[in-house]
Design goal:
The termini are far apart. This protein folds into 3 domains: 19-73 and 208-288 and 504-534, D-Maltodextrin-Binding Protein, domain 2 (3-Layer(aba) Sandwich), CATH 3.40.190; 78-187, Alpha-Beta Complex (Dipeptide-binding Protein, domain 1); 293-500, Roll (Dipeptide-binding Protein, domain 3). The chain is an alpha+beta fold. The strands form 6 sheets. Strands 14-18-13-17-15-16 form a 6-stranded mixed sheet. A 5-stranded mixed sheet has the order 8-9-10-1-11, with helices on one face. 29% of the residues lie in helices and 20% in strands. The longest helix has 17 residues, at 474-490.
Amino acid sequence: MSRGSRAAAAVVAAAALALTACAPSAPEGEGSGDGGATGSGVGPLVVATTTDVVNFNPLIGNSRTDSWVTDLMYPRLLHINEDGEKEAALATDWGYSDDLTGYFEIRDDMSWSDGEPITAEDVAWTLQSVLDDQPAGTLLGQMGAVESVEAVSDTRVELHLSEPDAVVVPEVGFWAVVVPQHVFEPEGSLADFANDAPQADGSWVSAGPYALTEVQRGQSYTMERVEDYPLADDGAPNASEVVFRVYPDVNTELLALESGEVDLVANALPPSQVERLQSADGIEVAEVPGLGYAHLVYNMDEPRLAQVDVRRALAAAVDYDTIREVVLQGQAVSAGSNPLIPVLSQFAPEDAEEYAFDPQAARDLMASAGVDDTSFRLLYNLTDPVMAQAAQLMEEQAAEAGITLELDGRERNAYLAATDAGDYDVYLGNFAIMDDPVTNFRLSYLPGGVINYTHVDDPDLTALVEEAGRQLEVADQVPVMQEAAEIVKDQVYDNIMYTQNLYIAHSDEWSGFVVQPSELLSVVNPVSLANATTAG
């Protein structure tokens, strides 16, 4: 199946911020503007973030800052445009040569920063190493049908499949970040290599628009412009440097933006700040389409939560309208408690009804389940003011139903670690990108799914998702996925609360940003930052 026919069939859809501390001081020498690059680039672009990089290996990184930095270092096979459609990046063509063989054709004009060309061998080694070493992350979850990967020429990679799979090629293409085989292979397992030390010349071997040259943890990450980047409009990035500076929270980031200390805040704006910043002098606000959702999930490894009536009681103990109006300032819409969210227009049911806020029904359901202990620990990201405020409202609302939610707010990286460890009763979070329904369900609801936070193991649901994955035409996937979604909703395997468009603030001295959907990409994606420029 060709790229064109796959694009016609693809349905893409769909995934956060309290004034506390002073901003860190700028590291000595930062912002000089020459960046070691040649050409007529503009001065440094300073980007605010709220977390350090955990891993410089893009295949095991688990924070937004990890992705923002490593996306500027290592190429993706495919990009996604503002409308959610997959587009060429390192790969120029992709599809299926037969039911059990997928392929990517890659560019022949890109090189690693040490002069070695990027070839199909790098792509094949990266993908095969994900299969062999099993690094935790979204990409591994996309590769269930892939048995092996090989380079059949300098520019062609083939994926050998165990069974027909309608989504594996575009999904692997989008989520795969290619790394240099000659640098990573000598380090052993891809799952264990943090890539946290520069090579002999003081930088990392990479192939993005910017090269990482200096790391000052807790303060900044400095990236210098490369001279040749074919995906930029002019063949090279504009800004001489991109500097990520670390701040304690988004409100401190905004103070730095308003004072001119930074040029762009990478984190999405708190809804309460959007209107103010839209009218603030010197600031532009870009709207970014949301391809994800906010949700609550209930850990079924906890015996009480293994009972569906307990999960239904917890779902009835939340007033979703109030959360959207008070916390999101009306900047979110109901998903009808359905994982086929409205932006998935070919899949989403027209008449999906949200779980009703009904404290008495919640009490009755808890009683019918024979549960006396109605106290549950709610895990959420403390540094995300939207989630923090929503958690506080949920605590108050649940109390009306006689349910105690013990708030367990943690700093983002600690929150992510607790999530991975299953250390919660109830999990409150959001997903940045849920771009394909079959893939989303595989990751979220199948045993072993990397974001199966409810720990679902439902044979009927699994069978439906697997059946949908064998259907090469979207029209044939739709009824199967809708049936699967009804199981998820009825059994409260996932409680989808809302979808939300996001807003990103930057200095009005900068323009040329290229929007890609979700906070993970937004305008902090490699094509966007390579094309950003100033009038000066």
